[in-house]
Here is the input.
Amino acid sequence: MSRVTQIKDRFRGFLPIVVDVETAGFNADTDALIEMAVVTLRMNSRGTLERDTTYSRNILPFEGANLDPSALKFIGVDDPFHPFRRAVSETEALKALFAPINQQINESGCSRAILVGHNAFFDLGFVKKAAERTQIKSPFHEFSTFDTVSLAGLVHGQTVLAKAVEKAGMSWDNQQAHSAVYDTEKTADLFCQIVNQWPLYTG
Here is the structure.
């Protein structure tokens, strides 16, 4: 028996991509997508899954988007239109964030990406709606996800990201939490830590 060392063979052709979105509410149809981060993963020659590259964009609310003040306060955004955010349109953001995903799909021999997230249905819902609004093809599977809430609940007995990360033996900084980049990188580390406990073998 030999250990699987190609990421395309580990998840039946799907490429796991870790995503976190920060939003101005809970309704993907009406509420603004404020920030999105993407972390790509790689599998090394020993068959160990590792965090690779982080990409992120601050995003301008789409025209007519709802901006819930309590949601903005929670994610620490006073004014989503402030020039210091250097936010871009949904179209520009999705093109920039989907490009490295599509590139890795092609280079790895995978068929498509599958979203990894903490409460992944929430992230996928906002990504899908933004893709619909901008008419940009999403690289993600339409409905399947890897949800670290379920995985961490099974392996570590914790469903809150901060507690699951700490139970996994990693550090957590509350000052950095609820930024898309920080949450995505921690989710990626948690996902890799869990997956690597169950290597896959062939033969």
